[in-house]
## 1
Amino acid sequence: MFDRIALIAAGTLLAAQAWAQDVPALLKAADDYRLAAGAMVVDTQVEVMKAGALEKERRYTVYVKPGRKSIVLFKSPSEAGQKMLMAGDDFWLLMPGTGRPIRVTPQQKLLGDASTGDIATMTWAEDYAGTVVGEETVDGKPCVKLALTAQRSGVSYARIELYLAKATSEPVQADLYVASDKLAKRATFVVDKVDGRRQVTEMRLEDQIQKARETVIRYVSRRPKSLPDEMYNPMYLSRSDVKE
Amino acid sequence: MRVVPLIALALASGAVPAADAPEFSGVFRAIPQLHEARGTSPLAAGAPLTDLGRDRLRAEAEVSAKWRAVSFTGTVRSIALDGREPRHVGLVNELYVDTRIGGEAFTFGKKILGWGVGFAFRPLDVVQQQDRRLLNVFTFEGVPAVAWERFTESAAWTVVYANPAAGRTGEGRDDESLALRYYRQDASTDWHGVARWSARTGVQAGLGWNQVVNDAVQLYASGLAMQRHDFSRNGLIGAAVPLAPGDPFISTRRGATVQLSAGGSWTGESGIGWLVEAWYDGTAYRAEDWADLHHLAVAQAALLGAPGVPAGAVSGNLAFSTRAFERQNVVRENVLVRWSYDSESWDAALDVLVTPRDGGSVWTASVSRQYDRLRWEIGARRFAGPPDAAFGLLPERLVAYAATQYFF
């Protein structure tokens, strides 16, 4: 009897250890549904909804590069000319009509219409570590639940409870907690076949603080595109040839 | 127009690459402003000859376009002041080419060049100092220039030849000058170094530093030393007769001085932020200069109605004295404290600028709301201080505005 209990306990422990070892691989697999490896340019459309009605629509072009670097070009009429550079835990913003990139803190990065962190951060593997804490069914899909903690100070969310489809590691849901450990947003993901492979086509962010608010981020296009390293220099933001 | 040859030079070099389709954007703005005059100011009798204290309506359209490497921003503006004929102006804010020649990054044309560190006053903006405290200024006006830049991932060098062949002009920003900037990023710290030469100021050199301390806090400081500077003051101060038949302001060349600024900001998770900034501008008036101007204005105002003294001469001289306010920093020593709230749609800000040496202050409050393409903002600014303080002498007490912007 005690031998059987010990055997089961040992088996559970080994399984948990196996999951723990697999967390980076799971995150990498989940990341691949949002951003395939390498440098890319991603066009996104953001709809900010209030009580189910469209309040604002925003468009962004994001140049993403391995090493946690991205340049966000704001394309909507009310934001045209704004640019943001995110390089690791460091952030700079260029406002139109000023000619001067300014440093912003991680908290300032979160301000504004739609958090540029939500738009430009498309991977978890480089920023988070954690463990598998169980299995749950979300939206009828059997999922692995991961408890992730930020490994860097500059990320938008200090803690994430991430649900990945057990069979495919597709992202299904993510509960996003800010530094005060308040649940700020719940993200759900739509995965569809695009260009011959399954990719996240939509991320829906339900605001958990202002319950009537919801943000829908649609990934309109993804193309391989590598910008020279010098364009990720903050002072380059004031040049108009960022994307050429 | 000095910009056109610069653009032509870039185009002639064949360095304008083929790129995307033209991009256009723009904004319509309507900004009514109510101005309350300060009748107790000794300058009050001169204010009607100026724009001070007049209600006004400003309407403008700003258009930006980008085609290949050519960028353009222009503004057409109409301003109707109470009791005056409307004025209509057209302005090319920017018209420039950012391009590469032989692998090097060049800029030709009129471009906004901001190099400074800080929020309200940026000493390192040596090519064009931008008055950050003006109400409802949305897009600055660039400077005609040729610039060469070199970048690595964490460092940048810029050499600017501004206002080519202009020599020394009426305004410092229009002067021909040669400027150099060095920038370096070291993890969470930015370092800036600038140097500039112009006939007006001789050599200027400065350093700036900006560090993000943690998720919420950043600190910054910068300083600029200059070989010499121009100082403009009312020549009637100390004169036996307090009236002049024409513009009494005289400009003199003074020696070396410095501009210094330091500050920090905190931004919380809730969107609430605080900013404190203090600065010193050695080119601005001292509190004693304002006290002298106040004494002159009192003496001039006392002549109103005096036998044999034309009222127009008195009010004209008082009006000339309001030119003392036409400077980025009205007083040398300044402290700004700013509270702000930034949410997804609503923004609010309240700040106070204090000039501790003369006890003056400027209080500004604003609330704004952003919709999809529409943004409105209401705000007010109040000038306060003892009668001989700069902001107490200003013949205007309050400005209130409502700005509506529609983006297309």
## 2
Amino acid sequence: MPTFRERLRLEMSGPAIPLMAFGVAINLTVGQVTSALKIPVYLDSIGTVLVAVLCGPWAAALTGSLANILASSFGSPAMMFFIPVVIAIGLWTAFIARHGWFRSLPLVVVGGALQGIIAALLSAPISAYVFGGTMLSGTDFLVIFFRSLGNDVFWSALYQGLTSDPIDKVVTYIIVFLTVRRLPQRILTRFPGSRSLLNPQ
Amino acid sequence: MIATKLAFVLFCWTAAFALPTAVQVVFMHAAFVLGRFLPLFRPSSAQARRLYVRFLLYAGLLSAVVVILNALFVRNGEVLLDLGIVQFSREGVEFGLRVSVRLVLMSTAVLVFFLSTPLRDLAAFLDSSGAPAVLTSVLLLSLEFLERLPQRIEQIFTAQEARGAPVRAGFAGRFRSLFSILGPLIVSSIVESVERSHALALRGFPAPPEHRIRIRLPLTIPAWSLIAGVVAMVGWKLWESFR
């Protein structure tokens, strides 16, 4: 049984280092694709999910955190405060990937929906208590709409998250699932997470 | 100097929670002035300057929208203005102002830090502070990939469009195109990661550390003063809540 330090070293060595950097860059640039196609999803955790599946939880947590820090430096300062949410995304995704959920599409859909709910539950208190439900983004209008129905800030932020996050995360998970399935085994086996992706013989 | 700027961010974040809104407004303006005039906090490039100005305009505009929308939709308390169909409530205006000021103060502090600190300097600072080599490597590689990925996305987009992918069709067609664009992008990233790892291994990366990782943060007098301010604000807030 490897120690925590050994597992950490395994997760963050070899191809994992450039992949984490790619994960950060994909998280930050995927908006270019969704806006060009005019599809109303963010997919801004796709790099984190990819790293979680192929490398492991701590590599994914680092990828998500760095992506949010860089997003702050590029003009979206509020992203900094959502680092706990991206860490949870990394940990949850790696957890279900380790348990073989990324071998079957129905489990991937369920995992993505649960991930969306977890993300909404974690981001609602930050959004409500740090920013009063206002993030200077397009979803603010949804929060204000729920407030106008008589809900308080926390519940409005939570309803907004529950409305948009599960769809976004399910699409993210499906894209990663379909892509990873198409990878040749000789590439896949270079990553520490490959054992839980390959079907047991 | 980066440690001083980090202390400044910590100071502004604490102020955003510990101090009354009126004081936060003063600090918010101080942060604007620092970002504009003090060399330490001034944006480090022309692009950063443009981003700073754009952020100020964006923050101003959206703060106004937040205040107006909250005033319209939060229907508690005294009515400040009654226009027949729409009413502006006092509680909504106050809530909108409180939230906007806090958000803009915290965001300005973060943005002033990042815009005045080139990310390569931040990586060098992390390295000299004893941060793990993996962290700085990932940060620097991310910056390199961030410059290249938009071009790669554009190439894949054009290639898929030329192959007849329905990138301008109805919603279902565009949704299918999402997979045909992101698939090659992710696969090429994974394959390049494997190739890069060979190159890194050939150069002996990561070398085993010569000593245990030890965080070293050289703090200047202004940094200590800001940290003292943070401690004072937290102490005052605790005293207030237990009084």
